[in-house]
Amino acid sequence: MLRQTHSICLLERSSDYGRLYETIGRYLAEGYGVIYAAEQDPEWVINKMAKAGLQVEQHIRNGTLRVISGESVYVSNGDDLDASRTIESWLSVVSNIMNNTKVKGVIAIGSVDAFIKRGRHKSSAEYETHIGKKFEVPLEAICCYNADSLSDMSAGTLITILNAHQYTIHDNAEYSEWEGDKLQSILIAAFDRVLGTTTSALVLKTLKSVYKLDERSIISEPTLLEDVLGKFFRASSNAILASILKNLKSEMAFHRQTI
Questions:
Q1: Distance (Å, rounded) from C-alpha 75 to C-alpha 9?
Q2: What separation, in Å, do the N-terminal and C-terminal C-alpha atoms of the chain show?
């Protein structure tokens, strides 16, 4: 069932893409259209989809499946990702399928990994935020990230990207809503791991009372996380931020692990 939302998927293994292709096959069988631009080589993807059991040629022929390169929809502004023009580009492809086929709705699957790997974290996060979380038309947007592309990303930027999505997507088409309560659990687990349970509780209480830092303020302004922890812990803040980042990735991973 298509959800009219913006969701995120973190793929860590090559086999994850095979499971994603299976999900695409189910959408196509149910009468939805699919645009896939999450990998750079369309021909290679088409072959992999066929091996996964999809009736690729049939769906491409009738226009319900478009497998395209990221370069054909993501628009650059110098080295950065141009959010407005990229969204216009996506909407053009979506409209083409909606107007020329009888699909019930469209699932658009893409990836900004190419920009993330070039260090364009800010413009990528701005693009994700511009998309919005929910849609009034029968459209579902899924943004895929490869685990390797997030290796240099800060916790604050990753929270910004997560905040731009309604759901994280996991194996067996499981959708999990991203909300403040989950961020709170992630923060507590990270502080507990680095500081120990007793000290962690005291520190979190101090951060909330003195610096007004809690999951709500971080959701509203993710950059506060690094700023406040840097002031409070100085050099030792790196260990806590690394722990938070690890927990964030675990929460959004396709094969989600218990934190």
A1: 21
A2: 29
